[in-house]
Specification:
Blueprint lengths: L6 E10 L4 E4 L6 E4 L7 H7 L7 E6 L13 E5 L13 E5 L5 E9 L3 E5 L9 E11 L8
Antiparallel strand pairs: 1-2, 1-3, 1-9, 4-9, 5-8, 6-7, 7-8
């Protein structure tokens, strides 16, 4: 049974509120995390508590429980000249390096006459997410029984 300290592996199919597939780990590498260590979304971790190997569960996370609402301050307007011409299309994801070297994914939200509006929000911000989860393995961890 999943409890604090358990090392858990699970597979999932992730879809949006309309049932559109976003991502799936079926047939790929499963997610592996240590329960209680805040390595996955807290609401998802709470739903996994107490599950057993081979147990399946459908979990619905609100935007607030997942990646948060869309932040209106998460948009930035830049000169069109700063974007490669071949990428100038609404919805295009640009992969850039931040000031401290981290990789960022920015999406083109709007194209104006002289500028481009970039969306810096997480791609799943503002979305209700549906997870179809199957627990594949549970290993006792070193901190089990401490909580």
């Amino acid at each position: 049974m999943i409890k604090n300290g358990s090392v858990v592996s699970f597979e999932y199919v992730l879809s949006d509120e309309n049932g559109k597939l976003i991502e799936s780990t079926k047939g790929k590498e499963p997610v592996i995390y240590t329960h209680g260590q805040q390595q996955i979304a807290p609401a998802l971790e709470k739903e996994l508590s107490g599950m057993e190997v081979n147990e399946e569960k459908n979990i619905r996370l609100s935007p607030e429980e997942a990646f948060g609402p869309v932040d209106p301050n998460g948009f930035k307007e830049v000169s069109k000249k700063d974007i490669p011409a071949e990428d100038l299309k609404v919805g295009t994801t640009l992969h850039v390096r931040g000031r401290s070297g981290e990789e960022l994914d920015l999406r083109i939200h709007e194209i104006k006459e002289e500028t481009v509006v970039l969306d810096l929000n997480h791609p799943l911000a503002g979305k209700t997410l549906n997870f179809a989860i199957k627990v594949l393995n549970i290993q006792p961890g070193s901190s089990e029984g401490l909580n």
